[in-house]
Amino acid sequence: MFDIGEELKKVPDLPGVYIMHDKSDTIIYIGKAVSLRKRVHQYFQPSHNEGIKKAQMVKQIERFEYIITDSELEALVLECNLIKEHHPKYNTMLRDDKTYPYIRVTLGEDFPRVLFSRQQKKDRSRYFGPYTSGGAVRDTIELVNKIYRLRTCSRNLPKDIGKERPCLNYHIHQCSAPCQGYVTKEDYRRQVAEVTEFLNGNYARVLKMLEQKMLKASEEMEFEKAIGYRELIGSVKQIAQKQKMTNTDGEDKDIIAAAYDDQDAVVQVFFIRGGKLIGRDHFYIRIGAEDTKSQILTTFIKQFYAGTPFIPREIMLQGEIEEQDILTDWLSKKRGGKVYIRVPQKGMKEKLVELAEKNALLVLSQDKEKIKREEGRTIGALKEIGKLLDLEQLVRVEAYDISNINGFETVASMVVFEKGKPKRSDYRKFKLKTVLGPDDYASMHEVLMRRFMHGMKEQKELADKEISEEYGSFTRFPDLIMMDGGKGQVNVALSVLDELRLNIPVCGMVKDDNHRTRGLYYHNVEIPIDRRSEGFKLITRVQDEAHRFAIEYHRSLRSKEQVHSILDDIAGIGPARRKALMKKYQSLDAIKAADEADLAATDSMNEQAAKAVYQFFHAQSQSQKGMS
Hints:
Largest sheet: 8 strands, mixed
Distance between the termini: 86 Å
Structural class: alpha+beta
Radius of gyration: 30 Å
Number of strands: 21
């Protein structure tokens, strides 16, 4: 029995983090303090008043715990980490958890590549960004690869030099083929250095180089090349024009402003990188009626910069915030250099803050109803399902489906929904290894066993290494497993969990005679659902997505098997020639009917390859006639 009065006497007069639990032992609030003793005592003093929300929270506290730290800065870091991990009910929380795209130049490789990345890792690569448009990032990567002819393959160079033929990019003059040794490491690295200059915003040099090449090609009467260079010039200018100059100091800045009412707040962020406004984004925050603008901005800064790897040199706000000195120290340590938090009073910087605030107000007024509808479709629908199944903490749902045709290439899908939305990065496909024939129950047993054993292995490895970040989609277990079927499939899942000693709720998505979802099978009971409810619609989306993903995978395997079994078994026919043949003839029957001369005239083919194809199909025909 936890005696709050007695435990209060034990709280030390030291900096640290305190954690409040309710009667079900759920964490409902996390805070930090310079003095744990003074701060925690305040919550239980009758005269103390921190608003309605905190008063409601205090009534629910059944016990508390605390972690001491050596400084207030350490307490701040720990508070941010714990809030992000546990999402306590009474903390002011960001509603979304966005990641931003980066351009990654893999400088740790002998022959670097330019890649799209959603994470900025501590490796030997150089990262540019973050950007707010994934499409713009992909366009830029495609452009620099065309201009500088960098490789896009994942071959291990220089180890694999000369082991395989050069790819299509080499033949269309979009790669210098380091895989064949056609370019030296030094010359290739010089091209990469120019790429990094381009990504830093030095467009003038690239434009001048392309214009010179265009003029030279034109003078030499190579008009197709000249047109290609002209198109590249247009692409570079388009990218350059997308970036609006806001100042000339070339610094990285974030401009942050908030708009709020009694229940909701929108924080608008303008991203300035290298002196250019590269984009903007907005975030929705759940607040209490007594939360001030200063508190909203303070909370946002803690949670946003705890989760993003890039910290700009300067953060400009619309007003003073709480804990500004300690937040400045924390951000400076994360960045590895001095960070300045400022409230501009005049000039362009003040106007940018005003513009951010206007955008936040606009989003708040225009999107509020849309946000609530979207929450109803996702988080609200998930809460409906949780209520039906009597599950309080329902965030991550996994669903599984089996696909086969007469036992051919049995496959399974695993789809993941978090907060009512599909999390496609965690989807997984399974090709059955131990089950022969169309046995859905045995197939599902294998799939679930592989999924959770893999997850348990990853969890153990993480624990042994004493690291907290997850490195695979299997590491995190679901709050609910949804099976595509009724009692039989549910029992298969329960038997796997029982074997592995895991306690995860399982329900079946039951269909009627017309193959439409009619209810959930849970604890040996079929629970009917209102077909008009958002919960029912979410169940249908989960079921359809699991089915679609499995069918899509199965279809891809069938098509690969069909093409491979015939064309790839012919000597001298690789992926490029196979693709060229299928593009020209459209069907295998048309390829069989073609003569050698016609086959040899196909792109990528020669007389020897054409003869091999012709003899292969005609030898098959002769053998089939002999058998008949």
